[in-house]
UniProtKB/TrEMBL annotation:
Taxonomy of the source species: Bacteria, Pseudomonadati, Pseudomonadota, Betaproteobacteria, Neisseriales
Species for this entry: Aquitalea aquatica
Gene name of the record: aguB
SUPFAM superfamilies: Carbon-nitrogen hydrolase
Annotated protein name in UniProt: N-carbamoylputrescine amidase
Enzyme class name: hydrolase
Family, similarity comment: Belongs to the carbon-nitrogen hydrolase superfamily.
Superkingdom per UniProt: Bacteria
Domain CN hydrolase: 4-259
A Pfam entry, by short name: CN_hydrolase
Amino acid sequence: MSKASVAVIQMAVDPASRQHNWQQAETLIRQAAAQGAQIILLPELFEWRYFCTEQDARYHALAEPLAGHPAVQHFSRLAAELQVVLPLSVFEAAGQARYNTVVIIDADGSVLGHYRKTHIPDGPGYSEKFYFNGGDTGFKVWHTRYARLGVGICWDQWFPEAARAMALLGAELLCYPTAIGSEPQDPTLDSRDHWQRTMQGHAAANLMPLFAANRIGSEQGRDLSQTYYGSSFITDGKGAVLHSAGRTEQAVLVQEFDLAELAAVRASWGVFRDRRPDAYAPLLTLDGHTPVPAAG
């Protein structure tokens, strides 16, 4: 298909009711589909309060295997009914490991596979290393019914290498489910604009649209509360913001893209033609000098 329509969903999460969060997400997905959206993105870990605000072993029990995962089953049926693609963020259990995972549900309800979050943050209010293993899938691109989709998860969005890897793998669109907001160690720190600009740069550098879905509202944890700043957005293929939600309101943003036109522009710029992988050895190191052994 030459054209594809995407949507981002911005929503608050009810900390007391997984079912309520499912129902709210479904209502907003239906709204997006009614507006013509074909690929619809929910926020990161939308089923639950963002429990990574603190380290509490009880939350490990929320992880479930992908086989038979109730959210995947529920939203697969919805995807098939509405003929939409749903990159679905879940807390995955795999043996003794736990992953922050996105399952890619195609427009017929089938599961194309999954991506496990590569970059795992560890800081005040974002103690994800306590809950999640580092992802082992590598970056992937999904040949969905409507477009080739590259999917990263939240902290991945700060790394240009992730976006470039997905572009090289053939992505036509990039998306990032997200949970980001206030910084407990510094109430004056507001990363919203930096957050958006970083991803605008990925879109511009790779000449492809990008969309990110964040949650809203304040959530109280055991030790502290955090307020999520929303501001979900969609860019064009040169990084300009086409739509941006506010900080506090629920939102459904929809945009159609001409994929053939985007591909022609990408080719005309020559940024992929003129790449020099032979000159990028420092990118395979941590210190700029010492190569890191390949995974696996």
